[in-house]
């Protein structure tokens, strides 16, 4: 199993130095590790603590282009946007999305979603809430050109089957995240059945963790997940950087 790419990493464009290294340093390390591609996917702007400033998006994109050239590796400009609305709303405008090479979407603490009161623990795990979460994800998947849904079932639970089926239908990929892995054995069987595709991601917040996906590879082996469905093992997503 050759890991070709890491499509979920953070750089210093996440506010307050939430992540340690510059895009240039991340790209250099990815190249040293033998990856063909890396995506820089800082937190969406509405993350209250770590979101990238909208005014920095263009600058970050320039940095990805410069790093690509300098290190001879494809460096994609991305954002890990925040799921905020019951209607699927995320924290990027259509113009901002058009400018990205890759769009990731996930749910995070430290945001203000309108479909859940995260701090109400009892409500958080109720069936009624799981239904709302599920619908918010499905609306986002149908509304935006999302490439990858990050760490599903971390922080809030969904009906895994319905979200996976919505992803499979739209060609949206689900992530195995080595830092945030909340899928149960039962979930994994449901994912296999759904026909959805996968990536393995490090969610690295510093360059030392790039390609740190061993736990995901173990899971793929132990559940016999067909490798042709894992889009950054022995193959890449083949994005073209948008100029
Ligand atoms: Zn995340
Ligand atoms: Zn992340």
3D structure, described in words:
The protein has 243 residues and is an alpha/beta fold. It has a single domain (5-229), classed as Alpha-Beta Barrel (TIM Barrel), CATH 3.20.20. The protein is built from eight helices and seven strands, in the order βαβαβαβααβαβαβα. Strands 1-2-3-4-5-6-7 form a seven-stranded parallel beta sheet, with helices on one face. The protein is globular. The model has no long low-confidence stretch (mean pLDDT 96). Bound molecules: zinc ion (ZN) (2 copies). One zinc ion is lined by residues 8, 10, 80, 203. Residues 80, 106, 108, 150-151 line the site of one zinc ion (ZN).
Secondary-structure topology with pairs:
Elements: E1 5-9, H1 23-32, E2 37-43, H2 57-71, E3 74-82, H3 94-98, E4 102-106, H4 121-124, H5 127-143, E5 148-149, H6 160-170, E6 173-177, H7 185-194, E7 198-201, H8 214-222
The structure holds zinc ion (2 copies).
One zinc ion binds at residues 80, 106, 108, 150-151.
Question: What's the short version?
Answer:
With about 240 residues, the protein is α/β, with parallel strands linked by helices. It has 8 helices and 7 strands. It has a 7-stranded parallel sheet, covered by helices on one side.
Q: Which class do the helix and strand fractions yield?
A: alpha/beta
Strand order of the largest sheet: 1-2-3-4-5-6-7
The topology string of helices and strands comes to EHEHEHEHHEHEHEH
Radius of gyration over all CA atoms, rounded = 17 Å
Q: Helical segment tally?
A: 8
Residue share in β-strands: 15-25%
Compute the number of strand runs. 7
Helicity level, as a percent range? 25-40%
User: How many domains, in number, for the residues?
Assistant: 1
Major beta sheet, specifics?
7 strands, parallel
Can you tell me the CATH architecture? Answer: Alpha-Beta Barrel
